[in-house]
Design brief:
The protein has ten helices and 24 strands. The protein is α+β, with helices and mostly antiparallel strands. It is globular and about 70 Å long. It folds into three domains: about 130 residues, Hotdog Thioesterase (Thiol Ester Dehydrase, Chain A); about 160 residues, Hotdog Thioesterase (Thiol Ester Dehydrase, Chain A); about 170 residues, 2-Layer Sandwich (Alpha-D-Glucose-1,6-Bisphosphate, Chain A, domain 4). The N terminus and C terminus are likely disordered. The longest helix is centred in the N-terminal third of the chain and has 29 residues. Strands 15, 16, 17, 18, 19, 20, 21, 22, 23 and 24 form a ten-stranded mixed sheet that branches.
Length: about 550
């Protein structure tokens, strides 16, 4: 029952959040007042300088947890919401969200403070991956992070999903580029500006002040140099001072040391209506050695008018071959960038239902599906709440039973069999097997009113086995829009906000199974009579679920072999 006692310990620790007694042991804070030497000619903090401070703070947090030197491996997308002026204070907080084998995710929050008005506002949020590096030959095995507050529990759980996205980010872009329907034609060459005029190349000598205590060039310093040449390239296109709005996810491919010459190259890859993408490459060499690829990044700039509104930008004429490749890749990254921001970056309550599913956004829909359920399961207070004129109802039911957690996961994740125990599922048809963990189903349910029209739902089912010991099995459901299956007159198309199961292993033979459903208007009628005490249909359904699991605890292929 070790898992059960550990679970109770976590529940006890979660109470500390309200009492304000807990501080994450890996948390590091930095506060810097913005001086003229940190700012550009507009009196705004240079993003390059901000990136250096962010990387330094995150590295100190990673090393506090690891107990050994750490290096920056990658940084997820960063969206800069506000600029920071001279005289204002930058507050940066970093803490380790989750540790894997030798790598860890560090969450970074940046806010700004006006010392005269006392006003605070958020500037950006970032997630960086750091790798622990020992000076000896011993292999690094990081200790696990134990979440002790509600927010830490959520971030710890979501870190596994973010890691999953990082690992396949490159493949998503390549799949989109290989899709012939995505290829776009260039603008009219008479109107377009040649990209060659935006090309920038600069070299930097890495000196001791640019390096960390391991004599490696600070990742933040490299990012600052890259931001500098990217800004120059963007300025050459628009003949104005551009504002950096976003940096796409990027990975450091290798280290750079003191004494290296760092060659930085930048060029505008493409322009859109009110923004442009600038590609930057950093390469290093030492004496007569060949160039080593250190990093590539893609930055999105805007040009603002006097009222702070984005100005329209001219189209560009890419160079043949390599320029054309960069032009098309920029279009793919823009689509992925919008998908990520549309589906992931907004608050859970703002994510639209039935987002159209396609191969380019499948990983982000899957992330949103799983993360929404994990956030729902991490809630402390369960009640009936009202926002404006809408009632938000969350159904939560839990039970323990004698069945191995993995077996319960296999049975409950097979949505095509749900009609065997759930009377609300008349039909469940598999429409698309996305991959090993994600499936799209059409579900048909009866009408609540007598003689009413049947409802159907197009559901994305995402299942996840535990990432580490102590993690639950997860089965998440949410509505998506599938172009091949539009609404029909035969059914009323319903939507599911968030639903699914978490399954904890209490012991080798006992599982704790929890069901959650954040009811939408189409789902609410099915549970409203239960809430009012006029029905016990959901109780009956979960009794049937328990019996279904007991009846199938032994796989059918083994029955009769005893």
């Amino acid at each position: 029952m070790a898992s059960e006692s550990h679970h109770k310990e976590n529940l006890h620790n979660l109470q500390l959040e309200d009492e304000g007694q807990h501080r994450n042991p890996s948390e590091v804070k930095m506060s810097q007042i913005v001086l003229p030497c940190h700012a550009n000619h507009c009196g705004e903090l240079s993003i390059g300088q901000l990136l250096k401070w962010m990387d330094c703070t995150a590295c100190l947090s990673a090393e506090r947890h690891a107990g050994c030197p750490c290096v920056t491996a990658s940084v997820d997308d960063i969206y800069f919401e506000h600029t920071i002026g001279v005289g204002q204070v930058v507050n940066i907080k970093a803490k380790v969200n989750r540790a894997f084998n030798s790598s860890m995710e560090v969450g970074i929050e940046v806010s700004c403070e006006d010392l005269y008005s006392g006003r605070h506002w958020r500037v950006c949020q970032a997630f960086a991956t750091f790798v622990a590096k020992r000076t000896d030959a011993n292999k690094v095995q990081l200790r696990q992070v134990v979440p002790c507050t509600h927010q830490e529990q959520v971030e710890h759980s979501l870190a596994a999903e973010r890691r999953r996205m990082r690992l396949i980010h490159h493949d998503i872009i390549q799949d989109l580029l290989n899709n012939k329907t995505f290829q776009r034609k260039n603008h009219d060459e008479d109107e377009a500006l040649p990209t060659e005029r935006t090309r920038v190349e600069s070299v930097e000598l890495v000196l001791p002040p640019h390096a960390n205590h391991q004599v490696n060039t600070f990742g933040g310093q490299i990012m600052a140099w890259m931001e500098n040449v990217a800004t120059i390239a963007a300025s050459r296109l628009c003949n104005a001072h551009p504002t950096l709005r976003a940096i796409d996810m990027f990975h450091f491919r290798g280290p750079s040391q003191v004494g290296d010459r760092l060659v930085l190259k930048a060029i505008v890859n493409n322009t859109f209506k009110n923004s442009m993408e600038v590609g930057v490459c950093a390469e290093a060499y030492h004496r007569d050695e060949p160039l080593r690829h250190i990093n590539s990044a893609f930055m999105t700039f805007e040009v603002l008018d006097e009222k702070g509104r984005p100005c329209p930008l001219p189209p560009i004429k890419p160079e043949p071959q390599e320029g054309q490749r960069r032009y098309q890749e920029a279009l793919a990254r823009k689509k992925i960038r919008l998908d990520r921001k549309y589906i992931i970056s907004c608050k859970q309550t703002e994510v639209p239902l039935s987002v159209p599913w396609d191969t380019s956004n499948q990983i982000y829909l899957s992330y949103n599906n799983v993360s929404a359920l994990k956030m729902l399961a991490a809630k402390n207070n369960w009640d009936l709440c009202s926002k404006k004129n809408n009632v938000s109802t969350i159904l939560h039911m839990s039970f323990e039973m004698e069945i191995p957690a993995q077996r319960a996961f296999i049975l409950l994740s097979d949505i095509s069999r749900r009609h065997e125990w759930d009377q609300h599922y008349i039909l469940c048809k598999l429409l698309l097997r996305v991959d090993e963990d994600d499936f799209i189903y059409q579900v048909v349910t009866p009408s609540v009113s007598k003689g009413g029209q049947y409802q159907d739902f197009i559901l994305l089912a995402s299942r996840r086995p535990p990432c580490d010991s102590g993690d639950p099995y997860v089965i998440a459901l949410r509505s998506v829009a599938l172009p091949s299956h539009p609404p029909t007159e035969e059914f009323h198309r319903g939507e599911v906000v968030c639903a699914g199961f978490t399954i904890y292993e209490v012991s080798k033979s006992v599982s704790k199974i929890s069901y959650y459903n954040q009811a939408s208007p189409e789902v609410l009628p099915y549970i409203s009579t239960d809430i009012a005490g006029l029905s016990s249909s959901f109780y009956s359904i979960f009794c049937a679920c328990r019996q279904y699991l007991l009846d199938n605890i032994i796989p059918s292929r083994f029955i009769g072999l005893k």
